[in-house]
Design a protein that fits this description.
TIM Barrel; disordered N terminus; five-stranded mixed β-sheet
């Protein structure tokens, strides 16, 4: 099974490269090739409406229902960000009694460009039980730890460097470089475990497999995924986009408090082979700094967006003190092939494997409880990547 996985992994790594990134990498986050549109999330409409609210979406994991409210402000409304967020959260919780939490993201209307563009002006996570605490905070009458205010609200967002188009011969050059590099990394693929800065699977020989989530944290899905994992008693590794972690630090703190591991998925979620070496290093080091600033812990693992890398990328990761992590099982939760197909693909997960899901994929959230139940029935214990490799000991905060 491991040799077959190795062959599939090698084919994936030498597949044709993605098209060149836009002029401003990260302005719109790339999605997996072949992605099909997901069913639209239900919307919550306030009556009378709040003009600054662009939309309020909500979702459920079967136990917890969470809403995400997007607010877009004009320049002269920026000072009202907190009070508008508090009013939106109060009215959303009032309008839908089954809501457990409202998460709010407040942006400049003129520069809003989605989750890869400029950072929000303000964000907050408001569980129903904390609404009054948040209301007091919004009027400067008390503290509130589940909120973030952008210290540089007028800073440009996304990456500021131009894309570097790949020349026609780049694929052949890249393939030769990967082959040469792979010859020196054969042990990592063949034997498993953390070897010379690479990990493709574990080598414990135990009924353990790593559960990993890319693109974290998302303001709607993060609390739902964390709740599902908590109910199942499973700990995972979250590969965080630095930009998302910076804007929603309280979700990163939740991950650590619940015993999960946080890891590096670049700052802007860009395809790294399209960037010069200095900018690759910046993507990795900036994300390390954000995550360590939130958690107080060093970051060990890194996963390149889309699995796209070059020897230059692997060297930059190693220089940043990171182990580059891949996977054995990717059900393509963004491609929306249907829940039955996704679960069938995840059923192939074996001991020492590494499962790849996405924190912001609706399909992943839908199938997660059933997947966790199936692995438990098989006596395959799901753990973080660091636990699989023997490099991470979770510290769960006492309640």
């Amino acid at each position: 099974m491991k040799f077959r996985t190795f062959a599939l992994t090698l084919l994936m790594l030498t597949a044709p490269a993605a098209p060149a990134v836009p002029t401003t990498p990260g302005q719109v986050q790339p999605v997996a090739p072949g992605t099909r549109a997901e069913t639209a999330l239900p919307q919550l409409h306030l009556t009378p409406p709040i003009p600054q609210v662009a939309h309020i979406e909500y979702a459920s994991n079967g136990h917890l229902t969470v809403a995400h409210a997007l607010l877009l402000l004009q320049p002269d409304e920026q000072a009202r960000a907190r009070t508008l967020a508090a009013e939106t959260a109060r009215r959303a919780l009032q309008a839908l009694p089954t809501l457990s939490e409202v998460d709010v993201s407040v942006y400049h209307r003129s520069t809003y460009a989605g989750p890869g563009g400029p950072l929000p002006l303000f964000t907050a996570s408001v569980p129903r039980a904390r609404l009054q605490d948040f209301a007091r905070y919004a009027t400067n009458a008390g503290p509130y730890e589940r909120a973030w205010t952008n210290p540089r609200p007028d800073a440009p967002g996304g990456s500021v460097w131009p894309a570097r188009p790949r020349p026609p011969e780049a694929l052949a050059t890249r393939t030769r470089a990967l082959a040469a590099y792979g010859a020196n990394r054969f042990a990592a693929r063949l034997l498993g475990g953390d070897r010379d800065g690479l990990i493709y699977w574990g080598n414990t020989g135990q009924p353990l497999a790593a559960l990993t989530f890319d693109d974290a944290p998302h303001p709607l899905y993060a609390p739902l995924v964390l709740d599902a994992l908590r109910r199942a008693g499973v700990r995972a590794t979250f590969f965080c986009i630095g930009r998302n972690a910076e804007a929603y630090p309280y979700f990163v703190r939740d991950m650590v408090a619940q015993g999960h591991e946080v890891a590096n998925h670049t700052y802007h979620h860009v395809r790294l082979p399209d960037l010069p070496a200095a900018q690759v290093r910046e993507e990795l080091l900036r994300t390390n700094a954000v995550l360590q600033g939130i958690t107080g812990r060093p970051v060990r693992y890194f996963r390149p967006p889309g699995g796209r890398f070059t020897p230059q990328v692997l060297d930059a990761a190693r220089d940043a003190g990171l182990v580059t992590a891949f996977w054995t099982n990717d059900p393509a939760d963004f491609a929306n092939h249907g829940d039955t197909v996704l679960l069938g693909r995840l059923d192939r997960l074996r001991g020492d494997g590494i499962a790849l899901l996405h924190d912001n994929a609706p399909a992943a959230l839908r199938i997660l409880p059933e997947f966790l139940q199936r692995m438990n029935a098989r006596r395959l214990r799901l753990v973080s990547l660091g636990e699989l490799a023997g490099t991470f000991r979770p510290v769960v905060a006492r309640k």
